[in-house]
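From the shared-data thread, chain only:
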Amino acid sequence: MTLPVTLPGSPRKSRSNRCERTRWAIAASVFLVPCFLLQATQGQTLLFSDNLSTGAGWQYSHFGGTAKPGTTDISSADFGFDYSQLGIPEAPHSLPGDLGTAGLRLAANTPGLWAGDQIAAVYQDPSFSGQYTLQVDVWLNWAASPTGAGTTEHAGVLVGFNLADAQNSFAPGQNGAGVLFDSDGDANCGTGICDYMLVKDGAELDLASGQYGESSFGAGNQHGYDDGDSNANLNLQTLFPSFNIAAVTGGQNASGTQPAGSLGFQWVTVTLEVDADAAGSGINGHSGTVQVTLASQQSGNSFVLGTIDNSVDDNPFDGVNTEERPAHLEGGIGLMITDLYASGPSNPYHAFALFDNVRVYDGLVGPPPSSPAQAPESGTFVLLLLSMVFCGCFSPRRMGIQSMARRFTWLVLATTACCISCSPAWAVLNLTGNFDHGSLLSWSGDVNNINLVGRDNFFGGGQWRWMYFEASDVQGHQPVFKIDQLFAGGNSALNTHKMVYSYDNENWAFFDNNQRAGTEYTFSNNTPFTADKVYVAFAQPYSYGRSAAHAAQILATPWAEPTSSGDANGVIGQTPIAVDDLGRLNPKRDIVAYRITNPATDSATPKHKVVITTGLHAGEVLGTHTFEGLVNWLTSDDSRAARLRDDAEFFAYPLLNAAGRFAGYNRSTVENPDEDPNRIWHPTLWDEHQDIRAAGEAMLADVQSTPGTVVDAFIDFHSTIPASAGDDFGFIEISEGDANAPFWQHLLALQPNVQQVESTGTSWTSANFADLLLNADVDITFETEFGNNRPLSYYHTLGKNFGIAFYKAWVQVPNPVAADFDEDGDVDQADLAAWQHGFGTASAAEHHQGDADGDMDVDGADFLTWQTQYTGSISPLAASAPIPEPSGAVLLGIAISAILSARH
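Structure, as tokens:
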């Protein structure tokens, strides 16, 4: 017999030892795979997962019709179907441990029935409740061949599915809520095209429901509705471009081109974010919403089809969708294929829907990337290899039990290190603008490069302007954001512009890098984001909610009250219910107004009358921040504001376009998206503009409700892209002498950067309305510029300076004496109160705060000046009292301050 030869220093290589090392390597994998699975769901509790390799726990039901004579129905549900035999690639979100290309194949209407056919696989679990997210990979196939005709079959993913719940007689296989989508773009459902459909309790929702995220697709098959070929929508064609079918299948002898805008022959990840307790946006008491997102692996793009809303009632008089009713959203999920009309594909075996990688997460986790990393990053690979090498390099037989135990301990430690150090290779990047004032049409890409598509809801031609969204799972990353430079108002407006970001939606910073190059505008930071969630916007946002909260805060002060046309909360009207450009139902929003003054000084004598407005163009937020700065100062304890309130009244309208602001529009109202709301300010023009009419009629009534027939000043605060003026500026009637108004001249002195531009417009803008119908002496459209990249403090100070300009024009006398702290021409108790209020200010004190001697503090020496210059009939202190030495002035001031404080 021949003995094996062992070289010096070499371990003996036997088959048994190799097997030992292999087993240890497998053991390492057993420990490491949970680490990867943990990363795949970082921060998310996985309630349920199934790769559909078996039908365990699933129920199958066939809701089909009657087979044609002489045929056999072969509709089926095949779990563990190996789709690689048809040349179909592995589903995008398969995780280590999956059986590769095994999934669920559903086929309906094969070879063809007289009527519609529906197949469903259902999994029921009571833990699917409250807030949860369902994600499924879906592939929809059709018989693509020279003799094949297309298909009318749809794949479906639904939540709240219950096999025993056949409430809808037309489509019992579609109970619950979710989505159906076609594969080849030619599905003609009766008189309506229905390539993409939201489903609620068996009814395919039409666009009139207002629950779609795109206005040009999502049609249902309801009578009387026809929206044309939905896959011809340009947005869809951009998101899902066409491709050669044979190139992605390989094993079907398929031919032809998959139409752009359709979802056949590609893996589509369906995400349903369920909030069973959400109040919704409709008018009834039913709760529950489901946001539906579709993401294509082929293109890497995704879009939100819409949000199913149980609180939205069907309109029984519109002739469409009369079967819509609230749907159950909890307890079960359904995967289905449906063919609502009899059909016969040329090759029945190639007409089916595939499902793989079902995942249910606790909470609203958002859609995953369309093509996430299938392997850990480099650091993880190193640890994985080290662990396997460690396990494979030493023979347990030679080391003994103790050595094996030590090696096992090291294996566990290495695995733990892996799980701690692994970077989030499967982090679920998500962007959404689906919130108050948010605005984003769609996005694609990964956490390093994010491509944005802005909304064009006024200017046409795909031009965007206002943008505001939330990005999650970005901590530790430096994404480069890209968007087409097709900017509303001229591409060059982006040359000097900077986008902003915030971690708390309150404190905003500018991106480090902002540039326009080629056909794109890009922006990014030099350092990674330091939080998981970040808000990104075109400029510092000002939401509808912030406006409502600020109005309530102002109305709670002693210096503000509802106007005569408002209710106790200041509400002067509401916006109409309307569907926005993303297909979302926008319910009524309150339009608010208030009057700022000192009511104790109201009398038959007219006060100076000012009307201030903002928010007419929905995305012009910097003007609203300036408005806020003015209002905050008017209601402050600044002695100048107090004196101004005695002599003037301000009628304030803080958000003229409330619905547009909430919906994230850039300019127009939701009710009339194609019209500029600053061109219809006349009773003969605003009949079809409920929100503008409510504000205009309120202004006409409010200014007449107090003494005086003249409005001294009207200011409408807007924002603009960089324009010829080069800085913030006011459209003002220079030729008519308005620019000579004292308050305007004082503002220009306080803000030397502010420019003025001749206002020569003849259309019915808010300013012309004020000039001709409110009888305004001076009317100004004031424009704050986006391109100057200033912090919010600048706009708040600008607003404050408007108030000070009114004070200087109407209250302050020229060259007041040193102790005339309220600058009204005399020295009296009001000036003592101003000194008392400012007493103790150690630096940067101003005259109105009690600084009589100009040394920028307020102390006893300033009180002595007041005592000397006092002109009242009775001095509060003995006028003959000796004037203290300067060293004792401070002590005297403190004593007097204490006495006065005790009296108050």
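The chain has a mean pLDDT of 80.
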